[in-house]
Design a protein that fits this description.
- The structure is a single chain.
- This protein has helices at 2-20, 39-43, 62-73, 95-105, 125-134, 167-177, and strands spanning 27-29, 36-38, 47-53, 78-84, 144-147, 154-157.
- By secondary structure, the chain is α+β, with helices and mostly antiparallel strands.
- The protein has a single domain (20-177), classed as Glutaredoxin, CATH 3.40.30.10.
- The strands form 2 sheets. Strands 4-3-5-6 form a 4-stranded mixed beta sheet, with helices on both faces. Strands 1-2 form a two-stranded antiparallel sheet.
- Strand 5 (144-147) and strand 6 form a beta hairpin.
- The longest helix is centred in the first third of the chain and has 19 residues, at 2-20.
- The two termini are 31 Å apart.
- InterPro entries: Glutathione_peroxidase (IPR000889), GPX_AS (IPR029759), Thioredoxin-like_sf (IPR036249).
- Belongs to the glutathione peroxidase family.
- It comes from Sinobacterium caligoides.
- Keywords: Oxidoreductase, Peroxidase, Signal.
Length: 180
C-alpha cells in the first residue's frame, strides 16, 4: 500500500512539474511581503494575464480595467498577475508607494509582485520566457501577455491594448473556453 502511494505521489509530482513546461517554473516575491510564490504550484492550469506595471505612467489607469477583468473572469479561471518594473523609470523605488498606488488608489485585488526587471538582459526569467514564446519584447509599461491553460501558448498585447472591450478581452474569452 505504501509503495503504491509513493509511486502515485511521484507520478502526480512529475505531472505538476511538467505541466509548467518551464514557463511557470519560477518563484517571485509578492509586493510588500517576504513570501515567495511558486508560480507553477499556484497558477498551473489557469489562464494568466501577466502585465508589467508602473505606478507613474500614463497607462497606470489601466489598473481599473485589469481589476475589472479579474473580477469578471476569475471564477472561470483567469488570474491577472502584476509585475511592477522601473525599466522605463516610472515606478517608485519604495514598495510601500507602489503598493499604495495598486491597492489603495486602484483597489487591485489580483496578485502583485515585487518590482523586477522585465526588459533586456536583466529581465526576470518569467519575462524572458514570455518574450521568447511570444516573439515580443517589452517596449514599455503595461505590456500584457496572455498565457493559455497549457502554459505553452502565449499571446502579447502592447501598452495601448485596452483590457476591456477589445482584442485582449476577446482573446481571454477564447482562452477560457479552451478545455480545462
Amino acid at each position: 500500500m505504501i509503495r503504491f502511494f509513493l509511486i502515485s505521489l511521484l507520478f502526480v509530482s512529475s505531472s505538476v512539474f511538467s505541466a509548467c513546461d518551464n514557463l511557470l517554473d519560477y518563484s517571485h516575491q509578492q509586493l510588500r511581503s517576504n513570501e515567495k510564490i511558486d508560480l507553477c504550484e499556484r497558477y498551473s492550469g489557469k489562464v494568466l494575464l501577466i502585465v508589467n506595471t508602473a505606478s507613474k505612467c500614463g497607462f497606470t489607469p489601466q489598473f481599473e480595467q485589469l481589476e475589472a477583468l479579474y473580477q469578471r473572469y476569475r471564477a472561470e479561471g483567469l488570474v491577472v498577475l502584476g509585475f511592477p518594473s522601473d525599466n522605463f523609470f516610472q515606478e517608485y523605488d519604495s514598495s510601500e508607494e507602489t503598493a499604495e498606488v495598486c491597492y489603495v488608489n486602484y483597489g487591485v485585488t489580483f496578485p502583485m509582485f515585487a518590482s523586477s526587471n522585465v526588459h533586456g538582459r536583466d529581465a526576470n526569467p518569467l519575462f524572458r520566457q514570455l518574450s521568447e514564446r511570444s516573439d515580443t519584447s517589452v517596449k514599455w509599461n503595461f505590456y500584457k501577455f496572455l498565457v493559455a491553460r497549457d502554459g505553452k501558448h502565449v499571446e502579447a498585447f502592447n501598452s495601448r491594448s485596452e483590457p476591456l472591450g477589445g482584442a485582449l478581452e476577446q482573446a481571454i474569452k477564447r482562452a477560457l473556453s479552451q478545455d480545462q
